[in-house]
Design brief:
The structure is a single chain. With 186 residues, the chain is mainly beta. The protein has one domain (7-185): Beta Barrel (Lipocalin). It is built from 1 helix and 11 strands, in the order ββββββαβββββ. The protein has one helix at 66-73; strands at residues 7-11, 17-24, 28-34, 37-43, 51-57, 61-62, 85-94, 99-108, 111-126, 132-143, 164-177. The chain is elongated.
């Protein structure tokens, strides 16, 4: 892996995108993002001993359709009033190269499951404002059922099926900054 400065890096939410895709009615896809995210990356001398801790505000979901967002925030899906956040805490980093596997505990609706994300280190740089940044991408897939998110509606077609697929694809583009640097200024 390219050198990454050891220490605790703060997630820059203004330059981070947490997105998901789920199949709708078996024929199309619904995409969405979570707009409120915070966390940190702790880099040790050995990259495999490093860790990440991310918390997402479930009420910040945005699928581009307010009625759908309201439904997903409700009891049928996330039950945001009782479960306002989702959290990912890494437990293992497999690999030392630019591409690696990030293993961690994902908690949604009070249920924690181990998930694996295929990740890529984008590099470390000093930006035009003097802030030291590191970038990462991560992708994976989870089952809604694993987190007791089981609401669905049957389709009225000869092929059958349901309105919302069980599998949800996750894509994260994250930017971290070294402490003491104001990520909001850029």
């Amino acid at each position: 892996m390219t050198t990454l400065t050891p220490g605790t890096w703060n997630l820059d939410p203004t330059h981070t995108d947490v997105a998901f895709t789920v199949r709708h009615a078996g024929i199309s896809k619904v995409r969405g993002t979570f707009t409120a995210v915070e966390g940190n990356l702790t880099v040790n001398d050995s990259f495999s001993a490093s860790s990440v801790d991310i918390t997402i505000d479930m009420g910040s979901i945005n699928t581009g359709e307010p009625n759908r967002d309201g439904h997903v925030k409700g009891e049928d899906f996330f039950d945001v009033e009782k479960n306002p956040t989702m959290r990912f805490v890494s437990t293992e980093v497999r690999g030392e190269g630019e591409e690696f596997t990030l293993v961690g505990d994902l908690t949604i609706k009070g249920i924690t499951r181990s998930v694996e994300l295929e990740a890529e280190f984008g590099g470390q740089t000093v930006d035009a404002f003097g802030m030291t940044r590191a970038g990462f991408e991560a992708k994976g897939e989870i089952s809604r059922k694993d987190f007791d998110i089981t609401w669905n509606a049957p389709l009225q077609s000869a092929a059958g099926g349901v309105l919302v697929s069980d599998k949800v694809k996750i894509e994260i583009d994250a930017s971290f900054v070294l402490p003491g640097e104001d990520a909001a200024q850029a």
